[in-house]
Structure prediction request, 384 residues.
Amino acid sequence: MMWLMDINCGVCTFRLWASWMSDAESFQIKSLKVDHNYARNFKLGSLVTYLWIGSHYIKEIVQSHKLSVRKLSAKVITKFGIQVSMGQCKRAKKYAVNLIKGSLVEHYGKLWAYGHEILRTNPRSTAKLDVETGPDGKKYLSKFYMCFQRVKQGWKEGCRRIIGLDDYFLKGIYKGELLCTVGRDANDQIYHIAWAVVCVENKHNWKWFLDMLIYDMNLNFGNGYSLMLDKHKVSLIEAIKELLPYVEHMQYVRHNFQILQKRFTWVIYHTHFWRASEATIENAFKNGFYESPIVVIVDARKKPIITILEELKLYMMDRLYNMKLEGQQWGNHIFPEIRNKVNLVKKSQKHFLVLPRGLNQFEVRGAAEAYEVDLERKTCSCRL
Prediction:
C-alpha cells in the first residue's frame, strides 16, 4: 500500500507532494515548490497532547510551583514554536503533579523497609519512623529520624561538646521540614550527627527530635554541653528548657547579622558587629561578633524523601572517610586548625608576663590587662 502526503498552503504557491516508501519506512518527496509568502501559523496545538506537554516539562512544573498556565504556554511556543491552549497546559500541570505524586507515594510506602535495611546493615544505629492517622483513617508519615552507630561513636570519642541545631523547608510537592544537628570535631571542622524529616516545625516535633538525640548521645540534662541554635525560635527554646535544662545556649551570629543589617547598613557597623562576636570579656564586646558557621546539605530537600535520606547518608559517609584519610597523615600532634589558632594566640600574647601564684596557677599580665590561669582546672579569666 502506498500512502500519499500532499501539503498545500492554500494561499500561496507552496506545495509538497510525497509518498510512503515501505521498504525504507519513510516518505519520499516527489515534488516541492518552496516559494512561501504567507505568515507562519503557530496554532498547531492539535499536534501535541497535554500528556506530551506534562511529560516534557515535568521537572519545571514540579520544581516551580509558581509556574502558571500562561508561563507554561509561553515556554512551549518559545522552544517549539507551537501555540497550545490554556486548557492543554492546565491539564498538563495536573498530569505532571499526579505523575510525581504517584512516585512519591511509592517512596513513602518503602520508608518502613528502608529503615529496617539501615538497621540491618548498620547495627546499633537508630532509624525511627512515626505515623499519624489522618481524617480519612489512613496512616501518614509524621516523622523519620536517622543516626548511625559509627557517627555516635565518633562524636563521643573525638568531638567537642558543642551541638548545632538547624531546620530547612522541604521544597518538594509534600511539604515538611528537615531537622539537622551537627557538631565540631577535634580539628574544629563540621561533624554531621543526625537528621530527621518532620511534617512541621513545632515544639512537639523538636521535643521528639531532641529526645532521640539525648538518647543517642547520652546528653542527660545537658550539663557540660552547648547548643548552638538557628535564630530564636520559641518552639525550640521551650523544648530545650524542658529536656536540657542545664545546657548552655548559643546562637548563630550570621542569622542575627542578616536581621540587623536590614536596619543598620553602615560598613562601620558591620565591622563592629563581627569584632563583638569574637569578644569573651565585656570590654572587648563593646567594640564589636564572630560566627561559627554550620553548613549542611540543602540541595537534597527538593527531592523525594528516600532520595533526601540517601543523599545525606552518602554525603556524610564520603566526608567522614575523606576526613579520616586526611587525619591519618597528622599523626598524634596538635591538629592543623588548632595549631593555627594557637600560633595566632602566641603572636598576639608574646609580650605577656607570666607570674606563678600557686600550684599550676598563674597570673598573666599584659600592658593594660591581666588574667588568672589555672592549668589544673583548664580555665582562664579571659574565657577564651
User: Anything to note?
Assistant: The longest strand covers residues 159-169.
